[in-house]
């Protein structure tokens, strides 16, 4: 378009020079003038051909530039997506949150200057169009001091710098993955090995510290996303506040534009008519005056021939001027037709909302923006409850680990009590065997002894021993009951262990949900970046629409049409922004409703899980109380068994004493019998 304007200016200058030549050399030969006219026409045709060729080359270069820009946009998009994935995976693996600044793709740092998204359009305007996308890819936005564009070395250095940053992120991610694998292997060795409880506690504390660090890093990432969402919300509020002002301003400017365009067209038509009338009338008046003055002097034949020649020259000049004016009039009509067509197209685009709503860039932008707003609102409602749930789950995990430790202690005490019960059963069996032996001995002594007092004592002792044995059997039955209760308590402990494993599985599922939410956050960032890039592409398309209004006209007409095209482009841009704002507000409201629904569902699920956890805690407390009661009963059983053993020892000593007495009685009886026999034997001899 710029080449067309320059060719038009050169042609107008040639025409003015030709007109001056005709006015200054009015006495020149008509053949020479015709020859010069033909040469000028040939030069004009050659310039037109060259201009058309240059326009074709310019279009080809524009097409190549568009494909080149599309390639650069795709590369930049993929690269930014790779950087986002590396940063988020590093944070997920427990990396350093200092790499989170890589997520801000609009915050470019180059030297001592920092550029943010607010002054980025002004910075981009200072560069030529062919360097904008390349500078976006290289992430370099400094203006060079020498004013020269990008060279090959500068591009290579920028690509090497960005490549090195990406490789650093990949190395950090690899190191974090290796460290996490080592931690997992150590934890598995500790849990499945034969290490002591102190080492296990130390390893668990290390794992807890690493989990805390990961939670802190995730909190930092969520804070950055929340900050971005806050910034977008502020922008939406700002656009909503200025919406009415912009609408009124658009209406006023559109009315003023229509009035000024109508006045401009009317003034152009009047100006063309006046110019044609003025130049034609002046030429005809001069020729007629000269002819009349020549006819008034019949005596001067040379003057008449001169006047006739001048009249012929003026007629030829008028013909040439008329042909030139015809050409200019045709060109003006063509320009007017093209301008009217462009004006109709722009008015249709401005008035017809369906064209805007059904255009491909607008539909893509609309769908992506709606999806993005829905995702932002959804994650806004989900990230904070998930973070709170994660903290609560960590606390509950620590409580459950403490309860498991106490449960192990109770289990060990139960096993020790079972060993003691088995020992007591063996002692009771021994006592029963000794009791049987004593009964047999008592029966033998009862058969051998013949005195009633000894029998009475033995009967009393046997009855006392029977009572004591009944008491021992009762205590043995109690011990058996305690053993059965211990078995039931062990079964309850196993059920509690199963419940604990279920709670651990629930915690793992919740952690998996948190990981899925992290992946969705990453997708949200990718969509935000994609939306920003497509907004920039739409801005470039609007700028291209603003430049399409250039065509073959004069300088003043070009400036006027340029102003009109810019105003129309601004109107289109404002209308598009208005539609974008309406769609964003609508999508935000829908996303808020969906977020409220999901939030209520999540709260209900959290309440249900809390109730289950409270029930499990109550069951655990009841089992702990039952274990304490069983411990007290076991201690009572042990004390009773000790008293029974002491009584048995007393009975054994008493039994030995009685046995000694029985032996003494037997010896005494034997001696008495011997004495009686001895006394009876002398009497028999005497008789």
Automatic annotation (TrEMBL):
It comes from the Eukaryota. GO terms for molecular function: ubiquitin protein ligase activity; zinc ion binding. Residues 30-71, 243-277, 329-382, 407-633 form a coiled coil. It is an enzyme of class 2 (transferase). Its main location: nucleus. Transmembrane segments: none annotated. InterPro entries: E3_ubiquit_lig_Bre1. GO terms for cellular component: nucleus. Keywords: Chromatin regulator, Coiled coil, Metal-binding, Nucleus, Transferase, Ubl conjugation pathway, Zinc, Zinc-finger. It catalyses: S-ubiquitinyl-[E2 ubiquitin-conjugating enzyme]-L-cysteine + [acceptor protein]-L-lysine = [E2 ubiquitin-conjugating enzyme]-L-cysteine + N(6)-ubiquitinyl-[acceptor protein]-L-lysine. Its EC number is 2.3.2.27. It is found in: Nucleus. One of its GO terms (biological process) is chromatin organization. PANTHER family: E3 UBIQUITIN-PROTEIN LIGASE BRE1-LIKE 2, RING FINGER PROTEIN-RELATED. This is E3 ubiquitin protein ligase. It comes from Dendrobium thyrsiflorum.
């Amino acid at each position: 378009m710029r080449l067309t304007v320059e060719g038009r200016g050169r042609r107008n200058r040639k025409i003015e020079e030709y007109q001056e030549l005709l006015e200054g050399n009015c006495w020149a030969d008509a053949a020479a003038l015709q020859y010069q006219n033909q040469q000028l026409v040939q030069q004009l045709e050659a310039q037109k051909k060259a201009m058309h060729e240059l326009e074709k080359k310019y279009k080809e270069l524009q097409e190549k530039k568009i494909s080149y820009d599309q390639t650069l946009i795709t590369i930049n998009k993929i690269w930014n997506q790779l950087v986002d994935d590396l940063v988020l995976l590093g944070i997920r693996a427990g990396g350093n949150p200092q790499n989170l600044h890589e997520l801000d793709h609009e915050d470019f740092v180059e030297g001592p200057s920092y550029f943010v998204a607010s002054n980025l359009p002004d910075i981009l305007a200072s560069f030529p169009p062919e360097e904008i996308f390349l500078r976006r890819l290289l992430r370099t936005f400094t203006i060079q001091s020498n004013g020269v564009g990008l060279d090959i070395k500068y591009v290579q250095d920028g690509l090497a710098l960005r490549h090195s940053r990406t490789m650093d992120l990949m190395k950090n991610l690899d190191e974090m993955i290796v460290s996490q694998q080592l931690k997992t292997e150590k934890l598995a060795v500790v849990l499945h090995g034969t290490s002591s409880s102190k080492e296990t506690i130390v390893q668990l504390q290390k794992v807890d510290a690493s989990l805390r660090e990961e939670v802190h890093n995730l909190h930092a990432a969520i804070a950055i996303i929340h900050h971005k969402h806050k910034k977008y919300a502020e922008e939406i509020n700002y656009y909503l506040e200025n919406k009415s002002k912009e609408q009124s301003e658009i209406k006023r400017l559109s009315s003023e534009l229509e009035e000024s365009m109508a006045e401009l067209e009317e003034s152009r038509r009047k100006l063309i008519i006046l110019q044609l009338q003025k130049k034609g009338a002046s030429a005809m008046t001069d020729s007629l005056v000269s002819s009349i003055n020549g006819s008034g002097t019949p005596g001067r034949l040379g003057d008449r021939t001169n006047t006739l020649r001048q009249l012929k020259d003026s007629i030829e000049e008028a013909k040439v001027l008329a042909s030139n004016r015809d050409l200019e009039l045709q060109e003006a009509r063509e320009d007017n037709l093209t301008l009217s067509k462009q004006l109709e197209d722009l008015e249709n685009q401005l008035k017809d909302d369906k064209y805007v709503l059904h255009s491909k860039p607008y539909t893509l932008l609309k769908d992506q923006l709606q999806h993005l707003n829905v995702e932002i609102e959804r994650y806004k409602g989900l990230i904070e409850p998930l973070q709170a749930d994660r903290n609560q789950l960590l606390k509950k995990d620590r409580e459950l680990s403490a309860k498991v430790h106490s449960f192990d202690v109770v289990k060990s005490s139960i096993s020790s009590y079972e060993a003691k019960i088995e020992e007591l059963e063996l002692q009771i069996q021994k006592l029963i065997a000794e009791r049987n032996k004593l009964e047999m001995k008592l029966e033998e002594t009862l058969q051998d002894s013949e005195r009633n007092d000894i029998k009475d004592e033995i009967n009393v002792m046997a009855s006392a021993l029977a009572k004591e044995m009944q008491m021992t059997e009762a205590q043995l039955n109690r011990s058996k009951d305690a053993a059965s209760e211990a078995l039931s308590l062990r079964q309850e402990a196993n059920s509690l262990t199963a419940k604990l494993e279920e709670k651990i599985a629930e915690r793992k599922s919740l952690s998996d949900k948190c990981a899925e939410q992290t992946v969705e956050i990453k997708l949200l960032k990718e969509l935000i970046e994609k939306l920003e890039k497509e907004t920039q592409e739409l801005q470039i398309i609007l700028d291209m629409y603003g430049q399409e209004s250039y065509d073959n006209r004069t300088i003043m007409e070009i400036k006027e049409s340029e102003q009109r095209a810019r105003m129309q482009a601004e109107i289109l841009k404002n209308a598009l922004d208005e539609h974008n704002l309406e769609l964003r507000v609508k999508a935000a409201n829908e996303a808020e409703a969906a977020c409220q629904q999901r939030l209520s569902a999540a709260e209900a699920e959290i309440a249900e899980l809390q109730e289950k956890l409270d029930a499990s805690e109550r069951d655990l407390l009841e089992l702990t109380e039952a274990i304490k009661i069983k411990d007290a009963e076991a201690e009572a059983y042990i004390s009773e068994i000790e008293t029974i053993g002491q009584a048995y020892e007393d009975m054994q000593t008493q039994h030995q004493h009685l046995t000694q007495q029985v032996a003494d009685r037997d010896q005494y009886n034997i001696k008495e019998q011997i004495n009686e026999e001895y006394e009876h034997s002398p009497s028999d001899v005497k008789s």
